[in-house]
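Exercise 7. Given the encoded structure of a 331-residue chain, write a plausible sequence.
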């Protein structure tokens, strides 16, 4: 090969190398699933979207609609309806294994960041000072009027699980003249409780959860303690017990132990390694800004919580694992 040929070959190689970043910097269009506008997850997703817009190529779009839910988001991500979504460790474990709410394992789901917070499956009812716990409330109110979030809500699904273990399944309650109402919004929950149309609500909440905070300000509530046997049954179902300190919500005058779980951000194998890496980096390198969006994130530490198996539950996306290995957290 003569000198001119070598120069031409070198120029072509240089052109190829410089073209690679250009292709990698093509705009992307992303969607993040969360839940309704009065949920903690919606606040999380909007901040994640903000952080991603700062680092993604010019022209990229990141949508964070108030759509999805604890049990529906794994289905939506697996089917490609969302690029990523927030979910519960407990529920994503069911999705991974194809149990409880799912008919078959979802083998294409991958974790990005976990351990964001502590959720509690709170059991609240119209104030009754004579009912000392959930069992006592059920005994005093055999014809319970239960309100739960409906389709797609892990809180609604978990509420049905808990009440079933406590001897107040929908069949049990309807047989005693009560009922279950499954509704589509927190606004309907608030109206049902404040009007007395419903007297008991169970939902997955964080400290500072917008909907429960709002409802507790205007309605006198009892925070009901499930029995130890019910907590044990819920732990076996993927909801390990966690203590909610007294005073977390208005009217909560003592510590309560509820079934618990935590939030993770997950995607599917369809996401590229580079995009998964960029997503994790945007959150973990800016975790103080991320945490500032909601007080439920106050204890999140990417180094300590973000990648551990008990928090991510799903296999880590290769791009996420790359970030954690670079930081020296994951071996």
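Solution.
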């Amino acid at each position: 090969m003569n000198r001119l040929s070598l120069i031409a070959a070198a120029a072509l190689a240089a052109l190829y190398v410089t073209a690679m970043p250009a292709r990698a910097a093509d705009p992307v269009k992303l969607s993040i699933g969360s839940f309704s506008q009065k949920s903690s997850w919606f606040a999380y997703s909007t901040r994640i979207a903000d952080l991603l817009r700062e680092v993604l190529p010019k022209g990229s779009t990141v949508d964070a609609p108030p759509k999805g839910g604890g049990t529906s988001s794994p289905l939506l991500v697996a089917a490609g309806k969302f690029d990523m979504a927030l979910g519960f460790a407990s529920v994503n474990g069911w999705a991974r294994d194809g149990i409880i709410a799912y008919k078959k394992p979802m083998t294409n789901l991958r974790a990005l960041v976990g351990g964001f917070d502590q959720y509690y499956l709170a059991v609240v009812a119209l104030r009754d000072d004579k009912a000392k716990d959930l069992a006592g409330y059920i005994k005093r109110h055999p014809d319970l009027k239960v309100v739960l979030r409906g389709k797609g809500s892990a809180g609604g699904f978990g509420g049905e699980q808990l009440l079933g273990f406590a001897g107040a399944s929908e069949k049990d309650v309807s047989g005693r003249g009560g009922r279950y109402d499954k509704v589509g919004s927190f606004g309907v929950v608030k109206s049902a409780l404040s009007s007395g149309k419903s007297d008991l609500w169970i939902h997955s909440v964080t400290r500072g959860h917008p909907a429960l905070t709002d409802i507790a300000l205007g309605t006198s509530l009892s925070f009901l303690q499930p029995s130890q046997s019910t907590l044990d049954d819920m732990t076996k179902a993927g909801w390990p017990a966690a203590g909610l300190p007294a005073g977390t919500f208005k009217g909560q005058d003592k510590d309560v132990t509820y079934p618990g779980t935590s939030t993770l951000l997950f995607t599917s194998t369809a996401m590229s390694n580079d995009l998964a890496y960029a997503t994790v980096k945007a959150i973990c390198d800016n975790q103080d800004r991320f945490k500032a969006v909601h007080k439920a994130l106050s204890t999140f530490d990417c180094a300590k919580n973000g990648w551990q198996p008990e928090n991510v539950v799903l296999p880590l996306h290769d791009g996420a694992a790359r970030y954690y290995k670079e930081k020296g957290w994951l071996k």
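Remark. The CA atoms of residues 99 and 105 lie 8 Å apart. Students should compare their own answers with the one above.
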